[in-house]
């Protein structure tokens, strides 16, 4: 295997991955002393390794001054891309080991509380039908933990109500579901089968995170504004459960959900249709520069549902083995 030439025609030597990990650890640590302790090496050895990485790249990564060590613009650029590269290497090593294991380890799908487990099942069920030997594990994950869970190999794919694309992750829209409204069985609207969004104006909207802290909350607020009112927001103090349970904590309010209409949760909740529902996206998220044949097949089965919802990274082609 030959190395790729750079723009000047030189043959670039591949980066030393251990030095790259040392750089990331140092860049994130409060001091080089703390980084050396975390890496179980001496501060002198770490400093020498970082200098070696700078020589390999031909740039200064740190500004070493009297007041401490700070990242240079080149260092900040490397820190932005290095975690994804290191994650890809760990993924390749893990998948290589797993290829020698029988039975195959399960494909792990994480989903945020906004995605009901029934929707996850509908998305992955074709994979189980196609491959009788495939095992899939589904687990809940909070939106803020998606990146670390993917990079650390705890999950292979995440599903969320994605509105924006994270800068360090790859994404694709795999489904859209109509929004509906969940209210407590005691709510004034509970005896209705459907409502208009404007009829919700007198009641508070229950969300999982405050406005401007969650892109999905902002999306829901924007829908209310398009319907002519500014919603009163309540941030649910019960985190991690299905959104349809929120009205049981706040019976005066309502929550936007995608569950099927009708009674729910032991008939204590009513799911109502919206007269003109917006479509809520389901976004698949994964670590870039990684390949997993199960993920690739899932994205083939569920391509972006319309031309306006395109993948930020083309689904990779599985390699042999």
UniProtKB/TrEMBL annotation:
Keyword terms, alphabetized: Activator, DNA-binding, Transcription, Transcription regulation
Segments of this protein annotated with the region Disordered: 299-321
UniProt cross-references to Pfam families, sorted A to Z: HTH_1, LysR_substrate
Signal peptide: none
InterPro entries xrefs: LysR_HTH_N, LysR_subst-bd, WH-like_DNA-bd_sf, WH_DNA-bd_sf
PROSITE patterns: HTH_LYSR
Domain HTH lysR-type: 15-72
Comp. bias (Pro residues): 302-321
A cellular component term, taken from the record's GO annotations: protein-DNA complex
GO molecular function: DNA binding; DNA-binding transcription factor activity
Gene3D superfamilies in the record: Periplasmic binding protein-like II, Winged helix-like DNA-binding domain superfamily/Winged helix DNA-binding domain
Similarity section: Belongs to the LysR transcriptional regulatory family.
Entry protein name: Putative transcriptional regulator
Organism: Gordonia soli NBRC 108243
